[in-house]
Amino acid sequence: MTAWMAKIKLSRPAVWFCLMAAGIAALAGPEVGLAQHAAPLYGPVGVSPAAVKQGRLGSCYFHASVAAMASAMPDVLRQAIAAEPGGGYRVHFFDGRDELVYQEDLEYAAAHSFDHSEGAWVRVLMRAYAQRVLRASLHKSIETSSQIPVFVRPMALSALDQGGGVLMAYDRAIRMVVSQDGEIDKKALKVKLGEQGKALGIPASITEMISGFLDEKGFFEGVEQTVRENGEFFGAYRSLSQGGIPAEVLRAFVGTAHERGVQDRARTLAQLRRLGQHDLAMTAESGSPGSFDPGNWWVGGHAYTVLGYDEAAQSVSLRNPWGGHPEPDGIFNLPVTVFLEAFDSYTASGEED
Asked: Which residues pair with 98 in a beta bridge?
């Protein structure tokens, strides 16, 4: 402990965060874990709904939202992704923040069937969004901690954001210990944090500190809640309808989104008309079986992409993010009367009229 720390009698968390701020700042420089690009960024159909195929995770809300944006505003997604000169990709979000996605994590996601889309672009967006969610959780845990002095918090937050190593250590460690239900064990997480810190070249003293965060009041609980709510991004093979909210995904990339139940027929039809008149991304979330014929398209508790609305024919065009069911590409049309019965809610980009 330095003399000035001893003089003001900093608590253990304060010492940890101060030392970490200095240690991580020293790590800043070449980003951790970058490698040359492997899989091509785009497949034969580029940024389009047809390229989006959900993997083995219950991430329908994410894939349906990405397919909706690919349909209505493909340039927004193309412009959000920039290749890094040394490998990996940088993803730019609507609020101005960036996340750097590492090739190693893209390969992990592909190997574990997080995503089956054509090209790497959906996996890039998925990993960037996961890092964004985790970073926000760690920020909140630091900002609301009763153990970290107010004057230390800016240094702690700076330490988290510099170099990328700390965030990557947490992200990769969580993926190694998360259960199918999205639960994580603190003891196992601490062990994996240590291993990942070493693998990422973080000094042992710093690795010990970031593992120690989990013992501070409320810190682990904040991380645990984030993983429970967004488990699909970390490899939790959870059941349908446990996933996140499409509006949060849309807001991250385009700034505004709203969600409504379909019970208000007039409002829902007005939104469907807006879909055809503007470049809007829209998803629909199915409910429970009803009197309609489920045919070969029905999946309960599932998010679909709304591709279009033909007012003259009173028909809604949708796509299952599985890329199938129905075969061959997951696209099908429903009479608007069936749509209103089969779906509980919808989510759309932009402000509501």
From this structure: 92
Euclidean distance between CA atoms 70 and 181, whole angstroms: 30
In 3D, which of 346, 283, 326 has the Cα closest to residue 63?
283
pLDDT tens for 176-192 read 999 888 889 999 999 99
Helix (H, G, I), strand (E, B) or coil at 236: coil
Contact present, 276 and 309 (Cβ < 8 Å): yes
Question: Parallel, antiparallel, or unpaired: how do β-strands 331-335 and 315-319 relate?
Answer: antiparallel
State pLDDT tens for residues 290-306: 888 888 999 999 999 99
Q: How far apart are CA 175 and CA 234, in angstroms?
A: 5
Tokens of 102: 């590492």
The three-class DSSP label of residue 119 is coil
Q: In what order do the strands lie in the sheet with 89-92?
A: 81-83, 89-92, 98-101
Tell me the residue type at 122.
Answer: V
Q: How far apart are CA 216 and CA 138, in angstroms?
A: 12
Q: How many CB atoms lie within 10 A of CB 337?
A: 12
Q: Which two tokens stand for residue 65?
A: 């939202």
Which residues, including other chains, have CB under 8 Å from residue 93's CB and lie 6 or more apart?
80, 99, 128, 132, 252, 253
Q: What is the pLDDT of residues 233-280, one digit of tens each?
A: 898 876 545 567 899 999 999 999 999 999 999 999 999 999 978 889
